[in-house]
Design goal:
The protein has 246 residues and is α/β, with parallel strands linked by helices. Helix content is 33%, strand content 22%. It contains nine helices and eight strands. Strands 1-2-4-3-5-6-7-8 form an eight-stranded mixed sheet, with helices on both faces. The longest helix is centred in the middle third of the chain and has 16 residues. 39% of the residues are buried.
């Protein structure tokens, strides 16, 4: 198993960008499965390897490439005033990785997960592009962005840079609850975790209440915990098992 930092000039972002990868050993020559692992609002692509035991957890026998991209504070969205990170993550980056690494292009071999902002991003991309991801996991995700933004009026300028007109967010393709109402040709398998003392706990409960009426293959786990790396280190181990990586 190896770890590498990758940098290249993104045409979509119009700048140099970085992503980190954990590469599996591949003695039988089979294409690798791939997990995209998304960071939170205050972090970058290095957070998962700096603050969790991720490398130790996947060391033995995995056939998955783990990709940790950087997405700034974009909420994994094509920003109204900023870079098109959603397009980058769902189109350009996968195409680049397919050229560089021997990964499978099959939906059933492609997974996505993230924490906080990245938990929202993982569920949004999996629900919006269900033909691309077999499964997704959200840890302490910002899953009810309409309510969250409504309760943080002091942050409205920053959120406007991401979403544009905040009054138009509800019911849009950036609203997870609206995405749940669309028809699905195929549904991703979903895992959601949240700590009961997390400031996003009520928003996670709101999402759980709705998705449990939608006939998804869905697993919800809550336990004592706050919005911190102790909880996310535990969650990534749960998710690696959920994705059958360990």
């Amino acid at each position: 198993m190896a770890f590498a930092e990758m940098r290249y000039k993104s045409a979509i972002l119009g700048k140099e960008t970085e992503f980190l990868v954990i590469l599996p050993d591949n003695p039988d020559g089979q294409p690798w499965k791939v997990l995209y692992l998304l960071h939170g609002l205050s972090d970058d692509s290095s957070a998962w390897v700096r603050y969790t035991g991720l490398e130790r957890y996947v060391r033995a026998g995995t056939h998955h490439l783990i990709v940790m991209p950087d997405a700034g504070k974009s909420f994994y969205t094509d920003m109204a005033r900023g870079e098109a990170y959603e397009t980058f993550l769902t189109k350009e980056l996968p195409e680049y990785i397919q050229r560089v690494f021997p990964i499978s292009k099959k939906r059933e071999d492609t997974f996505i997960a993230g924490l906080s902002m990245g938990g929202y991003g993982a569920f949004k991309l999996a629900l919006k592009y269900p033909g691309q991801y077999a499964a997704a996991a959200s840890f302490s995700g910002a899953l009810d962005m309409v309510s969250l933004i409504g309760n943080m009026p002091e942050q409205s300028d920053g959120f406007s840079m991401i979403y544009g007109d905040l009054n138009a967010l509800k019911g849009s393709q950036n609203d997870l609850f609206a995405l749940l109402e669309q028809p699905f040709p195929v549904k991703p398998k979903l895992l959601q975790t949240c700590g009961t003392e997390d400031f996003l706990y009520q928003y996670n409960l709101a999402f759980r209440k709705v998705i449990e009426t939608k006939d998804f293959d869905y697993q919800y786990i809550e336990k004592p915990g706050t919005h911190n790396w102790d909880f996310w280190d535990d969650s990534i181990r749960i998710a690696l098992d959920f994705f059958d990586i360990i």
